[in-house]
Amino acid sequence: MENKTGKYFKYAIGEIVLVVIGILIALQINNWNEQRKEIAQEQKILLQLKLDFNKNLEQLDEKISMRSDITEASIKLLGFIDNPEFVELDSIIFQLSFLLTDPTFDPVENNLIESGNLHLIRNDSLKLKLTNWSTDVYQLQEIELEYQKIRTEIIIPFNEKTGLYRNIINALWKDGYIPKFALNKTAIVKHKIGNTKKQLNISEVLNNIEFEGIVADSFNWSHIGNIQSLALRNQIIEILNLIDSEIKE
């Protein structure tokens, strides 16, 4: 009886060991399958992120170019103010048209944090940059909002009050206008609304202290905006490089 009990005990232990091993193998297979699914999902997310951030880079470059136009136009206008001799109205009008542009960066939404999928990104450096992305963009957009306010509340009303606005709009459209932010960059649209028939005094415009402040303010905010934009551009490049390092061919 003792012999049989010992055999049964050993047999029972063996059965338990086999069951435990089976459970462990099943768990290991399940974990491996889950990990494989997460890696596949991560790759899908990385490919979408690459597409999104390439679009962000393209759009941001457009905004940088627009702000560069504003800063260059502002410098030329300040030069006209300091040296008004032989300055023509058309030159002032042409440079003022750049100050009416509204460069605002509106990147593709990154909802990784909201969706709870950020944990799928295994690269910690990439994960950190994606976490900080919204904050970095917001810092630039705060500056853009300041220039929007200046443009809407000061620049446009000043041009309307001095009678320059119609001439500026006519200069934009008469030879064909394609904004840098246009979706269709091949469509050249021409319209001629003509210049104002009112008498415009160049000297009054150039000697107007408000005009000088407007031009200086335009330079200031556009230049600050581009400093932030170039820093953000570097962030995008770093993010794209990290994404590429994680994408499996």
Helix percentage: over 70%
Using DSSP, what is the number of strands? Answer: 0
Question: What quaternary form is this?
Answer: single chain
Reading the helices and strands in chain order gives HHHHHHH
Roughly how many Å is the radius of gyration? 31 Å
Distance between the termini: 66 Å
Helix count, per DSSP?
A: 7
Keywords: Membrane, Transmembrane, Transmembrane helix
Transmembrane segments: 12-29
Pfam family, one: DUF6090
InterPro entries: DUF6090 (IPR045749)
Task: Provide key terms for this protein.
membrane, 249 residues, rod-shaped, 0% strand, single chain
Describe the 3D structure.
This protein is mostly helical and 249 residues long. It has one domain. The chain contains 7 helices and no strands. The protein has helices spanning 2-82, 89-99, 112-115, 124-162, 165-173, 202-207, 209-246. The protein starts with a helix and ends with a helix. The mean pLDDT is 87. Pfam families: DUF6090 (PF19578). Keywords: Membrane, Transmembrane, Transmembrane helix. The chain crosses the membrane at residues 12-29. InterPro entries: DUF6090.
